[in-house]
Automatic annotation (TrEMBL), chain A:
Organism per entry: Sphingobacterium deserti
Designated name of the protein: Cytochrome c domain-containing protein
Keyword Nucleus among UniProt keywords: no
Feature: compositional bias, Polar residues: 158-168
Extent of the signal sequence: 1-24
UniProtKB/TrEMBL annotation, chain B:
Signal peptide: 1-30
Coiled-coil features, chain-numbered ranges: 171-198
Gene source species: Sphingobacterium deserti
Record-linked Pfam families: Cytochrom_C (PF00034), Cytochrome_C7 (PF14522)
A GO molecular-function descriptor: metal ion binding
Protein name per UniProt: Cytochrome c class I
Keyword Transmembrane helix: yes
CDD domains (alphabetical): Cytochrom_C3 (cd08168)
SUPFAM superfamilies the UniProt entry points to: Cytochrome c, Multiheme cytochromes
Domain Cytochrome c: start-end pairs: 31-123
Length: 216, 426
């Protein structure tokens, strides 16, 4: 009789322990998991680098920036300066004097294609027709409701079949190596400079791919 | 009757003739404007807008500033006019920072006139919209304001009267109560307090007597603390779900999602370096020299985009940069401990891992949060299942080195990359 009761109590006890844990687990897993705080941390100094991160503020410099500009007039090793200024005359001169140092190969074209899609197609469109996604009517729905987004002025098409003319004279489909390179480097009209995003070699690969689009 | 019907007939005739005439007129106008619109969209919008300055000046009012013949000549070949020394042309060229306008020699005079007609039409629409809308809204507002004020005044008067009456009555009853039975009130208060005390004590006694209930409550508390403690301990130093407030309300949903800008347009470092890199503000300016979102802020610059302009010291009116830039201090979300080495280019360029695999659906995030835990277990789980693509120069060299070893040739550390700076100084 006594043993029986003990067994019963054990069962009850186990049952309520399980129930308690389940309830506690459910309650403590509420929320969508997003938080404004980093939560508890142990020995934070093991997470922070000893050297400065480039994005970090820095009291050691006058302008308090870690990523300092190189001193004026210095060149990194292996770096070739672009010797053309940002003017119409220099643009024309680049068009006459500058040609691509790269050989037209499948590999270079494939890289140019990939780079064009990352850095150019947003405005110029995947085929260079000047119909990239941000030149089109579009709208967003977020916490502020649904609203239309501003369209970016569409650039002229590269393609021969569209026969668009460049604002600096001549047809878009006949822009030479140097002219395209100069435009990537300095930007023009609504287009900004893409020199910080593309290395010289990458710029020439893009130029090579643009020539392919011009033929269409 | 006949008179009336003939009169009606005449009226119908004149009306239909009038309608046809009107239709013809609007048709001819619509034709011009419509062709002008297609031409404008394909040839002009790269640099011009009707209502605001883009690269070239705003076109509204251009027919008042110049006569049509002159405009046709200018649009066909502005550089020829400047070369010929047309004073207005030279002045206009200089006013706009000597920016060359595309020559449109392929357009006929009629086509250009259609474009001018379209611009005039848009100009009229733009002038109408804010003025008309404003007047209507103003009228509606003032009407609303009148009724609102009258109703409000009446409501205040009624409320004041009611308050006065109620307060009077309250004062009178209070005076009565105080005068009649102050002692009774004190006694009643004392009794009330003891009753409350008794109730709480009774409840506590009942709770303590019920051993099962006490046991269950203690168990619940222990279980809850255990689960919470377990979770907390496992998540020490794990920032999954961390969503800090950033200095600029930059929405990845708009930029990467709706605008379909590829991740590497801004985070190009992910292709070539250890760090995926936060873009410097000149990358923002590639688009935001033009995009100001002003239509959502009554023609003013968006306050969030103004923060970029402040950071790069850009003046949107003169389109010129000053020399007092102030960097934007973004809050770092993904922070791998300094004792763990991680390289973006190894994963993105070599392995071809999609950004979303680790960072989650960033293109749908209005505010970015840390999607993955970035724990060692998480890294290892993926490394256990990922197959390596051996079709690259690294493995070619490795196999070559093994072949040499098999032949009995000697191999130095320098031959397998032992002289690379980064092997020691990373």
């Amino acid at each position: 009789m006594k043993e029986n009761m003990l067994a019963m109590n054990k069962k009850n006890f186990l049952g309520s322990v399980c129930a308690a844990f389940a309830l506690a687990a459910v309650v403590s897993s509420c929320g969508d998991g997003k938080t404004r705080s980093t939560g508890w941390e142990f020995s934070r100094n093991m997470y922070d680098p000893i050297a400065f991160n480039p994005d970090q503020p820095n009291e050691n410099f006058k302008n308090k920036i870690t990523a300092q500009l190189p001193p004026a007039g210095t060149n990194p090793i292996g770096f070739e300066r672009f010797e053309f200024a940002n003017s119409l005359e220099e643009y024309e001169r680049a068009g006459r004097e500058l040609t691509s140092p790269l050989a037209v190969t499948q590999e270079n074209l494939a890289k140019g294609d990939a780079l064009f899609h990352t850095y150019c197609a947003v405005c110029h469109g995947p085929e260079g027709k000047g119909d990239g996604p941000i030149t089109k009517e579009r709208s967003v729905t977020d916490s502020r409701g649904t609203r239309a987004l501003e369209t970016f002025p569409p650039p002229p098409s590269y393609q021969k079949s569209d026969a668009a003319s460049s604002s600096r004279g001549g047809a878009m489909s006949e822009l030479s190596d140097g002219k395209i390179y100069h435009t990537i480097y300095y930007g023009h009209n609504s287009m900004g400079s893409h020199a910080s995003q593309l290395s010289p070699e990458e710029r020439w690969q893009v130029v090579m791919y643009v020539h392919e689009l011009q033929k269409k | 009757m006949r008179n009336i019907s003939s009169l009606l007939g005449k009226l119908a005739k004149t009306m239909s003739v009038g309608m046809m005439l009107l239709f013809a007129v609007t048709m001819s106008n619509a034709q011009d404007v419509k062709e002008g619109q297609t031409l404008f969209k394909s040839k002009c919008t790269t640099c011009h807008s009707v209502t605001k300055k883009v690269v070239g000046p705003a076109l509204a009012g251009m027919t008042e500033r110049h006569d049509e013949e002159w405009l046709v000549k200018w649009i066909k070949n502005s550089q020829a006019m400047i070369a010929a020394g047309d004073p207005t042309a030279v002045q206009l060229f200089e006013e706009n920072n000597n920016l060359v306008m595309t020559a449109f020699t392929d357009l006929s005079d009629d086509q250009i006139k259609n474009i001018i007609a379209y611009v005039k039409d848009e100009e009229a629409k733009a002038a109408e919209a804010p003025a008309g809308g404003g007047a209507e809204a103003g009228a509606a507002q003032s009407d609303d304001a009148n009724t609102f004020m009258i109703i409000g005044l009446i409501a205040i008067v009624v409320l004041a009267v009611v308050v006065i009456v109620v307060l009077n009555r309250v004062i009178r009853t209070l005076e009565k109560v105080i005068a009649n039975n102050q002692a009774a009130i004190e006694a009643a208060q004392a009794r009330n307090e003891t009753v409350a005390e008794n109730r709480f004590a009774k409840f506590a006694q009942a709770f303590v007597k019920n051993k099962k209930l006490v046991g269950f409550s203690v168990l619940m508390l222990v279980a809850f603390l255990a689960v919470a403690g377990w979770n907390t301990l496992w998540n020490v130093g794990v920032h999954q779900g961390y969503e800090p407030v950033q200095p600029i309300k930059f929405s990845h949903q708009i930029h990467a999602g709706v605008n379909q800008i590829e991740c590497q347009y801004c985070h190009g470092g992910a292709f070539k370096s250890k760090n995926a890199s936060i873009p410097s503000a000149n990358v923002c300016m590639n688009c935001h020299n033009t995009v100001t979102a002003s239509e959502h802020y009554d023609g003013e610059l968006s306050p969030e985009i103004a923060k970029i302009y402040r950071a790069v010291d850009y003046n949107p009116d003169t389109r010129a940069y000053g020399n007092n830039p102030k960097p934007i201090q973004w809050v770092r979300i993904h922070n791998l401990p300094d004792f763990a080495y991680f390289n973006h280019s190894q994963h993105v360029t070599v392995a071809g891992v999609e950004c979303q695999t680790c960072h989650g659906p960033v293109e749908t995030m209005e505010e970015v949060y840390q999607y993955s835990p970035l724990t060692m277990k998480w890294c290892i789980d993926c490394h256990r299942t990922t197959e390596v693509n051996t079709d690259n120069a690294y493995y070619d060299q490795l196999i070559e080195a093994h072949e040499k070893l098999k032949k009995g040739e000697k191999m130095t550390a320098a031959m397998i990359g032992g002289l690379e700076c980064g092997k020691c100084h990373y």
